[in-house]
Amino acid sequence: MKNRKKLKLAAGIDGTGWNFTSWRHPHMPADAGENIDFYIQQAQLAESAKFETLFLFDVSHVGPGNIPHYLSMFEGATIMSAIAMKTHRMGLSFTASSSYTDPYNVARQVLSLDKISKGRASLNIVTSNPGGMVNFSRGHLGKADQYPMHKEFLEILLGLWDTYEDDAFMRDKHSGIFLKPGKMHPINYRGDYFSVDGPLNISRSVQGRPVVYTAGGSPTFVDIAATYTDGAFIAGSTIDEALYTANALRAKLVEKGRSPEDYVVALSHNPIVGRTIAEAEKKYLELASLAPYHRIPVPQFFGTAEKIADEITTWHEAGAMDMLVVRQDHPHGLRDFIELVVPILQERGVFHTEYESDTLRGNLELPRPAFRKI
Ligand SMILES: Cc1cc2nc3c(=O)[nH]c(=O)nc-3n(C[C@H](O)[C@H](O)[C@H](O)COP(=O)(O)O)c2cc1C
To answer: How many CB atoms lie within 10 A of CB 186?
Structure first.
């Protein structure tokens, strides 16, 4: 099957990197995870290459044995709001946990970011990995609770974002009508885990609703993702592994009467690219030599720009991914990918050369959702 959507690119900005070593690299700011200038620089670099979105994964628990990045990182909504002021077209996404937050707070944060960025916000709402310490009063939750919570959380989130019809706020100084009350539809949700009365206190998004993703791999995840979200982050260290979950998601979307073309299957990888294979190997060895006691896996996308562009094209066309999240452990990883790989993908027509829309939804080729009917 040939993927009919163009490839989407996201820049995953992970501070010093998702490992024990990268902070020691001479060109990496050791405080990158808390360094606003570094984040702005990386965001603007990604936007200059027309990446559809910026992306932040998050950790739900802090605890013993954490990598440096886990102990020194910005909170997602806050950093994305700051980046919104320094970018203009690129989407902005952060991760929150349905197990350790409340849907009303998250609905406000994401919709506020959507307004601040003029229609560029998205949320990755996850159930969260276990582990670490009990940082939240709810303690550690098991999957038996997490997925039913996740479902309720998503229903509330989508309901709150549709509190007001698009033309609810008149704000007409002459007549004195601020809001048309008939166009306000508060939710009144009673679940086993969350009970929420609406209205939300912010008007509907210019993109209808912020884009929402979730992440996982189990059949329950597939069912929830296909029911409620616009996209999903899946694992896939091989093309077959990614295809297995991607195809399960697409089959479930069809079963639920949705079009797989109106959905974004996303994978994250950490490419190491060089002008020559020797240059790629040198970069890998630079990272590996920084912490001899922690093995760094050789990334899936590794080698020359042509080889990596070929592999990305193959994965995309096969349907293993609609969006690639480019993560970077090497301080020049994103820059090199942009300088070397992106032009090849653009030349081949696999990746776009200009933003098509003012909103993230438009750039991801996702339809603007209709207002909920209930
Ligand atoms: C690609 C991918 C990305 C994930 N990102 C996060 C994350 O940023 N933060 C987090 O707490 N959990 C993250 N998770 C964990 C999921 O939230 C979930 O707890 C985990 O995948 C187990 O659920 P499952 O059995 O349905 O796969 C991620 C999982 C996958 C597969």
So the answer is: 14
User: Is residue 191 domain-resident?
Assistant: no
Q: Give me the pLDDT at residue 140, please.
A: 83
Kindly state whether residue 157 falls inside one of the protein's structural domains: no
Give pLDDT, residue 373: 65
Q: Counting atoms of ligand 1 from 1, which one is nearest the CA of 146?
A: 19
Range of the domain at 20: 8-135+210-363
Residues 6+ apart with CB under 8 A from 40: 82, 83, 86
C-alpha of residue 215 to centroid of ligand 1, in Å: 5
Of 251, 247, 300, 130, the closest CA to residue 234 belongs to 247
Cα-to-centroid distance, 354 and ligand 1 (Å)? 31
Going by their DSSP bridges, the two strands 8-12 and 53-55 should be labelled as parallel
Enter the tokens of residue 344.
Answer: 């090849």
Q: Is 36 in the pocket of ligand 1 (CB under 6 A)?
A: no
In a domain, 169, yes or no: no
On the question of a cis peptide bond just before residue 29, with omega within 30 degrees of 0, the verdict is no
Is residue 184 in some structural domain?
no
What's 313's domain CATH number?
3.20.20.30
What pLDDT digit, counting tens, does each position of 84-133 carry? 999 999 999 999 999 999 999 999 999 999 999 999 999 999 998 777 67
Ranges of residues in the chain whose predicted pLDDT is under 50: none
Please, are residues 255 and 226 in contact by the beta-carbon 8 Å criterion?
Answer: yes
Fill in the DSSP letter of residue 351.
Answer: B
Ligand 1 neighbourhood includes 16 CB (under 6 angstroms): no
If one counts the domains in the chain, the total is 1
pLDDT at 169: 98
pLDDT at 117 (0 to 100)? 98
Per-residue HEC secondary structure of 171-236 comes to EECCCCEEECHHHECCCEEECCCCEEECCCCCCCECCECCEEEEECCCHHHHHHHHHHCCEEEECC
The phi-psi region of residue 225 (left if phi > 0; otherwise alpha if psi is between -120 and 50; otherwise beta) is alpha
Please tell me if the CB atom of residue 235 comes closer than 6 angstroms to any atom of ligand 1: yes
Q: Is 125 in the pocket of ligand 1 (CB under 6 A)?
A: no
Helix (H, G, I), strand (E, B) or coil at 97: strand
Note the pLDDT of residue 60. Answer: 79
